[in-house]
Amino acid sequence: MTYPGHNILSCYKRSNMNILVVFLLLQWAKGNLSQSANRRPNYVILMADDLGIGDLGCYGNTTLRTPHIDSLAKDGVLLSHHIAASSLCTPSRAAFLTGRYPIRSGMASTQRVGVYIFVAGSGGLPTNESTFVKLLKEEGYSTALIGKWHLGLNCKTSDDHCHHPARHGFDYFYGLPLSNLRDCKLNSGSVLIAGSRSVALVTLQLVTLGLFTLLLLDYLALVKVPWRALGYVFLVAAILLAFTVLFFNQFRNFNCILMHNEKIIQQPYSYDNLMQTLTNEATSFLERNSDRPFLLFMSYLHTHTALYATPEFQGKSKHGLYGDCVEEMDWSVGQILASLEKLGLSEQTLVYFTSDQGAHVEEISDRGEIHGGWNGIYKGGKSTNWEGGIRVPGLLRWPGVLTAGKTVDGPTSNMDFFPTVVNLAQATMPSNRIIDGRDLMPLLRGEVQQSEHEFLFHYCNSDLSAVRWHPRNGTAVWKAHFFTPNFNPELKGCFDIHACMCHGQFITHHDPPLLYDLLKDPSETSPVTPTSEPRYHQILKVMLAAVEDHKRSVTAVPSQLSLSNILWKPWLQPCCSTPWQSCQCSNERGNGTPTDSDSSLSDA
Fold first, then answer.
1. Are the C-beta atoms of residues 177 and 246 closer than 8 Å to each other?
2. Which residue in the list 81, 82, 150, 163 is annotated as catalytic?
3. How far apart are CA 274 and CA 216, in angstroms?
4. Ramachandran angles phi, psi of 354, nearest 5°
5. DSSP structural state of residue 456
6. Which residues contact 217 (CB under 8 A, 6 or more apart)?
7. Among 65, 83, 191, 415, which residue carries the largest CB count within 10 Å?
């Protein structure tokens, strides 16, 4: 039964209810918009290993398919003159994380070897260095490293993990504490074993010559040889030599380790589906942390040797196994970008793609296949300070903040990522040390037309080998080389050895320095002279003065790549099994979402 006014009252109630719903929706939207506006950006870092700048479509390659990486250039900013702080993995990555030239943290070698080659070395990135990861973690960011580390592991015991990624701000680590090496993959050859065999052969030749000489002197009664004592010396030498050869033949078991946080899960690790596993780890991290600020560092094993590709990508590119790896890495980048889009995080995330140095042009497989990349028009490659060794891709995407399709041509450095993210995250910049990187945002946004880098300095291990000068309001970018590797232009590499060196007979000093105008001669083929450039002496004077100023700013610190720090120490050898099992295991994690106890690391 109805009564007069019933319909009017119902409409009135419905109207009030609608107004209430609209009001609540507006408040909810206002709160979400406010929260979104106040939320600091997320960061996804994608770093290839030994990728040539000429390997990507957005940098001119027309034969390799890299659509997902190229989309970062289409939807963001391309840096055409982006420089790695070193042409070797370990110092380059140290500089990237700290925003400082590696010599400032002791991560530039004073010896011949410029990277860590054993897990059981004692050197590593010092914990008193501030990484941008550590600073962001202090601001509440969730942080993860997936893939390659190569900045040390232990100091005094096999499990103190004093140089572990956790000590530098990473909550989560799934990857390699050392690096992906040819020695880690069966039937892929070995630089280290070949080297040990060469040492053994030379030692045998010297011992034979010495023994023959002593026999001759004893026969001629010129010298009385203490044969028993000499026999003991030869016995000890033979034992040490045999141990060295056996050790290098066990290199794969000792050094090719896959870790989940602080636990070894494969030793040696398997290449089967390794790229898919690492990619899944990355996307799972994004899903677990989609409701809070995060930093993901996807540190690819591609395209460093040993090269590996899953069956879906093998034989699909036009450039052999190396090309297959590039295209598989592009697939992985696509998966990560798709995950950001699916989670609605694309517009809240700054994505940065780069490489730790240029392509390794000397890398040839035992079967004669080229396993190094292409550096385009640039001379040289990995381990050199020619442009091919240090000019790397630099792609940044942040929809709604960075202009899509923009190109920045002035010199920038991968050290610049440090102050860029620290400032964006509103973290406190360290005031007790020199930061060599410069905030990229004013340049990326078009607020300034030139980077703050007037000079960039280039080291070969701990020796300063070149300097780059971009004069304010100038029309040139000058680069002076003080010494260069003995590089064969026809062979495009230092093919007498596996990689160019920084010392002795492997280099040529230049006095006066070789001077190039990189805007006119980016391939560094024709150095300018006093005849071709009237300001030649004036330009060199300015650059040499800048070098002296820079050297005065460098203070002595303990070398983390000294001989004692890079040598193998048996008491530091991590091993997931008993020694008589040759450090072999495969302890995969169970399926399912990681718990708090196994997905993060303490600061202890």
1. no
2. 150
3. 59
4. -160, -175
5. E
6. 223, 225
7. 415
Q: Give the number of C-alpha atoms closer than 13 A to the C-alpha of residue 543, restricted to the C-beta side.
A: 28
- DSSP code for 571: G
Q: From the candidates 68, 81, 82, 89, which is the catalytic residue?
A: 89
Rounded Cα distance between 145 and 260, Å, is: 10
How far apart are the C-alpha atoms of 239 and 234, rounded to whole Å?
Answer: 9
Strands (E), 33-181: 42-48, 77-79, 82-83, 142-148, 172-176
- How deeply is 247 buried, as exposed, middle or buried, from its count of CB atoms within 10 A (0-12, 13-18, 19+)? middle
The CA distances from residue 106 to 30, 99, 433, 561, in Å, are 50, 14, 14, 7
Q: How far is CA 507 from CA 437, 460, 485, 488, 510, in A?
A: 29, 11, 4, 12, 10
Q: What is the pLDDT of residues 106-138, one digit of tens each?
A: 999 998 899 999 999 999 999 999 999 999 999
Taking alpha carbons only, the member of 418, 421, 419 closest to residue 398 is 421
pLDDT tens-digit series, residues 49-98:
999 999 999 999 999 999 999 999 999 999 999 999 999 999 999 999 99
Q: Where are the alpha helices (DSSP H) in 365-408?
A: 387-390
Whether residue 357 contacts residue 53, with contact meaning beta carbons closer than 8 Å, is answered with no
CA separation for the pair 431, 376 (Å, rounded): 39
Strand partners of residue 294: 142
Q: Residue 513: in which H helix or E strand, if any?
A: strand 507-517
- pLDDT tens readout for residues 440-467: 999 999 999 999 999 999 999 999 999 9
- Cβ of 70: how many Cβ atoms within 10 Å? 19
Strands 42-48 and 349-355: parallel
SS3 42: strand
Closest to 113 (Cα-Cα) out of 564, 574, 571, 493: 564
Q: What is the secondary structure of 67-94 as a DSSP string?
A: HHHHHHHHHSEEETTEE-S-SSHHHHHH
Integer Cα distance of 462 and 422 in angstroms:
27
Catalytic site includes residue 89: yes
- How far, in Å, are 281, 332, 340 from residue 346 at the CA level? 19, 16, 5
Tokens of 446: 């078009």
Using an 8 Å Cβ cutoff, are 354 and 92 in contact? no
As separate numbers, helices (DSSP H) first and strands (DSSP E) second, the chain gives: 15, 18
Picking from 253, 257, 45, the residue whose alpha carbon sits closest to that of residue 154 is 257
Q: How far apart are CA 488 and CA 235, in angstroms?
A: 43
Residue 16: exposed, middle, or buried by beta-carbon count in 10 A (0-12, 13-18, 19+)? exposed
**DSSP for residue 44:** E
Take residue 483 and report the two structure tokens written for it.
């010494």
pTM listed for this prediction: 0.87
Backbone angles phi, psi at 455, to 5 degrees: -125, 140
Rounded Cα–Cα distance for residues 395 and 216 (Å): 68
Q: DSSP alpha helices (H): ranges in 117-226?
A: 132-138, 191-219
First to last CA, the chain: 75
Whole-angstrom Cα distance, residue 294 to residue 299?
16
